[in-house]
Probable nicotinate-nucleotide adenylyltransferase (Clostridium oceanicum), 202 residues
Amino acid sequence: MVRKAIFGGTFDPIHKGHINVAYDALNIFNLDKVIFVPAGNPPHKLGIDKTDSNIRYKMVNMAISKEKDFEVSDYEIKNKDISYTYKTLRYFNELEPLTEWYFITGEDCFSYLEKWKNIEEIFNRCKFVVFRRQEFENKSEIIHKRENIIKKYTDKILFIDKPILNISSTKIRKCVRENKEIYDYVPMEVYDFIAQNNLYKK
C-alpha cells in the first residue's frame, strides 16, 4: 500500500527545520511521499496577521522543488472556508482512498489534539507523526497531556524522538525585522525570495 503524509502548517516562512522533519518522517516511517499543505484559514490563527497565502505557497514550492519525494498542495489556500484538519484529511482520503495517510504535527499542537474539531474522524483517517519542539520539551503540562492522549489513541500515534532544529518561523520573521541574518535558517531560494520581496520588514 502507498503511504503518504500530509504536513500542514502556516509556513510563514518555511524553513530548514520543516524540511528536516519531512525527511525524518519519510525515512523513519517508510513513506512514499510527504505533501506540504500551507494553511489557508487555520482556526487557531483567525484574526492574526499572516503573509498572503499565495506567497507562502510559492515559498514552499521553491523550497521543495528539487525534492522528488515532496509535493505541495494548494487545497487549503483555494478553499476559502476555515482550514479544519478533518476537512483536509477527508479531501485527501477521498482523492486517494487506497493510500495509507499520515499527518505530521508538532508536539505543541499535538498536546491540544482533543480540542481539534471532529477528532474521532481525524483518527479514523490517518496516523499522527509527532515531532518534538525543544521549547516544549520539559513543560510538565505538555508531558501530562501527551501521556493522556497516547493512552487513548495509542495505535494511531508515532513519534520522531529527535528534536527539531532550533528554528521557528516566528524567530525568522523577528530576525528580518531586526536586520539579522537568516541565511542558515531557510533554503537559499526562500532566502532570496524574502530579500527580493522585502518580506517581514514590518
About this structure: The CA atoms of residues 177 and 202 lie 7 Å apart. The chain has one domain: 3-166. The beta strands are 3-9, 33-38, 70-72, 100-106, 127-132, 157-163.
